[in-house]
Amino acid sequence: MAKKGDWVRIHRVILQADERTANLPEDTQKVPFEMWVKGHLLSDGEIGDEVEIKTVSGRKEHGTLIEVNPQFDVNFGSFVPEILEMDVRQRTALFGKEAE
Amino acid sequence: MTMKDLSYSAVMGRKNDIIKDAMGVDYRRYEREGIIFDYEAMMADCGYTLEDHIRVQRSVNVGNTPVFELHNLTALARKLAGPGKGARIFIKDEASNPAGSFKERRAAASVYHAKKLGYKGVIAATSGNYGAAVASQAAMQGLKCIIVQECYDSHAKGQPEIIEKARKCEALGAEVLQLSVGPELFYEVLLLLEETGYFNASLYSAFGVSGIETLGWELGHQFLEKYGRHPDAVVCANAGGGNLTGTARGLIKAGCPAKVIGAAVDLSGLHMASDDAFNRKSFTTAHTGFGVPYATNPDHSDVPRSAARPLRYMDRFVTVKQGEVFYITEALATLEGMEKGPAGNTSLTAAFALAQQMGEDEIIVAQETEYTGAGKGINPQLSFARQNGIELKFGNPDEEIAGKNIIFPAEPGLLKARDLDMDELRRKFIRRATKGLDRALSPEEIAFLAEETRSTADFVAKCLEK
User: Could you tell me if B135 and B169 are in contact, meaning their C-beta atoms sit under 8 angstroms apart?
Assistant: First the structure.
């Protein structure tokens, strides 16, 4: 249960697949045009409910409630061994074998 | 009051009026006979001279970024080049702008102008560093800000680089509206402009593009002061065209005769509006998917006439591969001690290859760097590529196929700058500008096309004959 005033994220389909512009690649033409935005919830609601929010610029937006206290989950990714290998090759290319 | 029709076709049909209200610019003023429009009149009409831009940018902590010589990359290039070859390689550290990229030069005047005209906020359509730039300037100048991003595919999987930029925009106080793949982004932007009455801080406005002139102007002066001479070549990442256009105009105003070389990451074969291809690319900007269409058809942006017209200024346009840009990004860290974002190293990658074609007494400058962080860096972007089934390997980057693999040069000598055919780009531009025209062009129109493509009346006439 999300309370009025909670910081949330909503989702809404802006254009259904058949309302989209022409000249799209086939794969894009088949799917809807969607939107995600965050704001403060204007009344209590559950995940999956149609809700209204107020964004930080003061706009009202509506859509399906999908996340309460939304967080960013970007990170530095998993280990990529090729990056270390690049280091070795670059140092060797410039400084010679003793760099290894 | 009647409700406005918010359907796709109705809103797109109102585009010119919405943009006029949202920028205070009536683009019809610059249209002349036939296909001609007065580019310089549009640039002059924005009301900001180079001196004005310098004053505005200094007042909001933008610009005056340092130039660094890359001694180790230069030494490596010289090892690979023939005797007497291997220009000195420099970068201009644009990452040291408040929000981490040259884009703030573009944002400063737009936000300043919006405030002067009494707009309460600004809107920008961008998945790139321009979002953070506008958000930063809006924060500094006290306006509201909405950034509209193309961010997710139809499985709601986002590009980590774009999500990081969303984080940064929010950190700087902006509302971030994220969209799935598709050109209907401009429809959403028009809806928001109508709803809010905010200023359209377009990437392609004369305010924005002329703001970048300070970068070229600084380059001209910095090299004279520090090294007593002008650089011989300046490499600019070329996507929408504003970076190159603005820099080249600034170089000219500084009296700097350097060649201006565009560089883009080769993403040929990937459709930019494809939902399926969206997460199979590792660069969301500075690539040929924007660089080529915007050079040959600049007027398909969010303004009727784009101020970014790179074919007017470009001496060469080269492409580099994704694996090569990641390679140079790593070399910048490991050999030069500077960790910067990958896309911002597109021009440096080209410069490393081009330096080897130049004399060792010459100077080549990559005119930008960009910030790096979680999601937006060599490790997160390569990790994401691998997750999406992209093969990562060492080999010959000539064999790289965008969307399938990323090939790091097995040896630095395999890294290349590949020239695009400038005359073919010019012909494309001319064909596009005259498409559907069922009459002969006037001499003035032919002269206009020669100016737009930096060619001659003869070249245009020959192209039209075909």
Answer: yes
